Amino acid sequence: MGFYDDEETAKQYISMADGYDGQNLIDVLREHLPDGSAVLELGMGPGVDLDILSEHYKVTGSDNSQYFLDRYQKTHPTADLLNLDAVTLQTERKFDCIYSNKVLHHLLAEDLITSVQRQKALLSDGGLVLHSFWRGDGAEEHHGLRFVYQTEAAVRDLFDQVFNVLDVVVYGEMEDGDSIYVVASV
User: Fold this and answer.
1) Which of 124, 139, 142, 182 is 20 to 30 Å from the Cα of 36, by its Cα?
2) DSSP-assigned letter for residue 154
């Protein structure tokens, strides 16, 4: 059982993440993607960003944690949700955008490359991705979760292999300069 599938550890994550959301990232997304577009959120967790996204877009939430999916479905019975692994992304559906907020940092380099390549296949013509990462070098584990830090150059190089990178920006989530986001198009 994974960290996010265990009710106790999932609740610990929810408590730890309380007060944080991707509103600033979604504001950036809105500069690039028209309202009403179809957006897939990878790793929706408890659904905080999904709720914000749904104010502007036709959203599909996804997670590899059935606990998070079931929890969200209880309070949002008509929500469009998929159980997806962020690497293999086993769906034939197409989206105008794929969004994630601090999700892909759990992936090692090889899996991250596979995920980015697979994401392109799920996007409609002109589709976008917007993903955020923790900024830095190396990798570490906290409470059984892997965190792979990224530099601006590494993010740009990775996404340039598959997409047209529109922007790579350093920003602060918990402290100045601790995060990076990338916006890229097909």
Assistant:
1) 182
2) H
